[in-house]
Amino acid sequence: MGRWRARIAVEGATLRYRRGVTSTARSIGNATIELVIGDITRESVDAIANAANEALRGGGGVDGAIHRAAGPGLLAELRERFPDGAPTGTAVATGAHDLPARWILHAVGPIWRGGDQGEAEQLAGAYRSCLRLAVELGARSLAFPAISMGIYGYPPHPAARIALATVGEHLREVGAPELVRFVLFSEETYERFADALGELT
Ligand code: AR6
Q1: Secondary structure element (H or E) that encloses residue 165, with its range
Q2: Residue 68 Cα, ligand 1 centroid: separation in angstroms?
Q3: Which of 61, 100, 121, 172 could form a disulfide with 150 if both were Cys (CB 3.0 to 4.6 A apart)?
Q4: Among 21-35, 70-84, 102-116, 182-196, where is mean pLDDT lowest?
Q5: Is the CB of 139 inside a 6 Å radius of any atom of ligand 1?
């Protein structure tokens, strides 16, 4: 984490920094939740999460971008270590290959099926699994994309609320990783997360 990033971690503040990117941050104990607009493949945090599917063989959206940027070694590692994939609501860790991060946490979020098929618990489970893996690995910083909010069709407001509530609860209980950054791909998604961060108790 660069020093300038630490400086923008001001509770409740929305600031403009570097190339005009918007950022919001909030402290929970000694840890910080940060929202930025950007491309997660460029993040040099310790671990980045991927919005994968149960097969863990790559795909579209952020999964496709991560596989392209990480190179073919990522698919080879996934095939070798996770021949059966991973169930919805869980996550697995791999190396980051050609990405600047150290680890990739492949989270399997739910496909939105109307909201009465256990989607909320599965989405929380995907985030929680990544947070636990990050702690086990000793990652001090972790970046998340907006899991299930693209191809999987989860409605933005409840999805952002679940993401932030799950991270908030984990940070209050465990106090680590010290930085959890949501790297959001559009202004619209960023705004949904900023609203939900404001509502976080
Ligand atoms: N950096 C950050 N966020 C991104 C990036 C990026 N480079 N690219 C896209 N997003 P999605 P899902 C945003 O569809 O809904 C794949 O095929 C995107 O705008 O990637 O969980 C998988 O293999 C959206 O806000 O993931 C699965 O089959 C968010 O990332 C399925 O899609 C998540 O959108 C998973 O669907």
Answers
A1: helix 156-174
A2: 13
A3: 61
A4: 21-35
A5: no
